[in-house]
Design goal:
Length: 475
């Protein structure tokens, strides 16, 4: 099955979409990668879902990526004697280390790392920003605040700290247990929530040991401030606009989305745009015009993937939501302005042989109007460099390693095929031309361009270009 678009679609699995039959329908509607949200999934269910996705993969004969999204540190206030309390702007309210139930003037905060880190002047946002507090005094045991905006607070509401750099990593004990479980189950990508600093990625990388690629979710201002370092240590980025819009001024999020998308593309790292893309389709069979525009902006920007959350996980129209996203993406990419916008954002290649080859492959393919760029890639690096160029022609990534093909299913414009490794250069050309014909990327007489590393099976050594004719007698 060949997609008629370059951007990929990432669909979250949930109660509305966890059966094997529904997963197959979502794939057929356009989902390329499935996301398992570990905030709502225990290990047994996760393993069941991975098994179902692999069964769908076998049935459709296409590599399908799986992303496990770790919950990350969830910071919450304690409970109230009356469950909830009314507050008024201007009043004083305290968060402290006293585990007694809260009242209208104070509440327990079971996070000593917050009590010791918040300073006077810092903001505390409760319940996704519905209540805003400003610290006026902090002594390590309590934080005395003024209510800036909002009218109430209730049990176990979340706390966001846009001004405070917390001395805690992105992995909690639950996350470590979840990470071990998803790696054992063979997922392809692991997303880390609430990354603040590049060091937050180091522990996950050490545990993963290459068994899965690491995606950093950018949802805190501290991460935006250190974006170049985080990009360097991650394999991909997710623009998690929900929490980003709580912790930063909501009007700043569109610009930050563009900055992150372009920075990731310059670095040759995949980038996913997520949260509320077709939110109204949780309950309605069609999206709003504004949501269609939102999805289209991400596609015009050249994001590798666009993501559905509750729309596909718990909504009433999961298949319709994926189908709608598929149609929007295809329509945008067919727009006469699309190629110009994508090309305008192209950055200079790095001074490496692999980058130079990828640049040359794109320029030759577009100049000669070739049918496809066919990249042999064992580790996935050649595929990444080819996609970084955002060529107008399709990229076919051939890999002898199924895990590599699954990982590359997230990658812009890349059609992944698992193929036995070539035995020599002639076999490599024959195999590439045959697969181009079989997969619908060329007909007899068309030309393709092939990139590979010579000697074969040497990771990261892309150093060869070859133009070849697709023949009717390829074997």
């Amino acid at each position: 099955m060949r997609r008629n678009r370059k951007v990929k679609i990432l669909a979250t699995i949930g109660p509305a979409s966890s059966s094997e039959e529904m997963l197959k329908k979502l794939f057929e509607a356009g989902a390329d990668v499935f996301r398992i949200n570990m905030s709502h999934t225990d290990h047994e269910l996760m393993r069941t879902l991975v098994g179902r996705i692999r069964a769908v993969e076998a049935a459709v004969g296409r590599p399908i990526g799986i992303l496990a999204d770790l919950q990350g540190p969830k910071l919450r206030v304690g409970k109230f004697a009356n469950v909830k309390e009314a507050l008024a702007p201007g009043q004083t309210f305290t968060l402290d280390d006293n585990p007694e139930p809260g009242n209208s003037s104070r509440v327990y905060l079971p996070h000593p790392e917050i009590l010791s880190s918040v300073e006077a002047g810092h903001r505390l946002l409760i319940d996704d920003g519905k209540l805003e507090l400003k610290a006026v005094k902090a002594d390590g045991k309590s934080i005395t605040c003024t209510v800036v905006a909002g009218s109430g607070i209730s049990d176990k509401k979340g706390v966001s700290l846009p001004d405070t750099d917390l001395p805690v990593g992105a992995l909690t004990e639950k996350d470590r247990a979840d990470l071990d479980a998803v790696l054992a189950a063979g997922v392809d990508w692991v997303a880390l929530s609430f990354v603040q600093r590049p060091e937050d990625l180091a522990e996950a990388r050490k545990i993963a040991r290459g068994r899965a690629l690491i995606m950093a979710k950018i949802e805190k201002p501290q991460a935006v401030a250190r974006l170049p370092e985080i990009i360097e240590l991650s394999d991909a980025l997710m623009v998690a606009r929900g929490d980003l819009g709580v912790e930063m001024p909501i009007e700043a999020v569109p610009g930050i989305q563009k900055q992150i998308t372009r920075a990731a593309r310059r670095a040759g790292k995949p980038v996913v745009i997520a949260t509320q893309m077709l939110e109204s389709m949780i309950t309605a069979p069609v999206p709003t015009r504004a949501e269609v525009s939102d999805v289209s902006i991400a596609v015009f920007e050249g994001a590798d993937a666009i993501m559905l959350s509750a729309e596909s996980a718990a909504g009433a129209y999961p298949v319709e939501a994926v189908g709608m996203m598929n149609r929007i993406a295809a329509k945008v990419e067919a727009d006469p302005t699309y190629a110009g916008i994508i090309n305008a954002q192209r950055s200079e290649p790095e001074a490496t042989g692999a980058d130079a080859i990828s640049l040359a492959a794109r320029e030759i393919a577009e100049t000669l109007k070739l049918s496809a760029i066919i990249s042999y890639t064992a580790s996935g690096t050649t595929g990444l460099r080819a996609a970084r160029e955002r060529p107008q022609v399709p990229i076919v990534a051939l890999s002898p390693i199924l895990n590599t093909a699954r990982r590359l299913s997230l990658l812009w414009g890349t059609h992944c095929v698992v193929s036995e490794d070539a035995t020599d250069l002639d076999d490599m050309v024959d195999r590439a031309c045959r697969i181009a014909l079989e997969e619908g990327f060329g007909k007899p007489g068309d030309r393709v361009i092939i990139t590979a590393g010579v000697p074969l099976r040497t990771p990261g050594s892309t150093n060869m270009l070859r133009i070849a004719y697709v023949g009717s007698e390829t074997h």
